[in-house]
Amino acid sequence: MSLSQGNDLTGSFARVEPSLAGVGDYVALMKPRVMSLVVFTALVGLVSAPGHLHPVIGFTALLCIAVGAGAAGALNMGFDADVDALMSRTAGRPIPRGRILPGEALAFGLTLAGGSIVVLGLLVSVLAAGLLAFTIFFYAVVYTMWLKRSTPQNIVIGGAAGAFPPMIGWAAATGGIGIESILLFLIIFFWTPPHFWALSLYRADEYARAGIPMLPVVAGREETHRQILLYTLVLAPLGLAPWLFGFAGAAYGAVAIAGGGMMILLALQLRVRDGAGEERAARRLFAFSILYLFVLFAMLLVEPTGRLPPAGITIG
Question: Using CB atoms within 10 A as the burial measure, which of 50, 268, 296, 315 is most buried?
Answer without folding.
Answer: 296
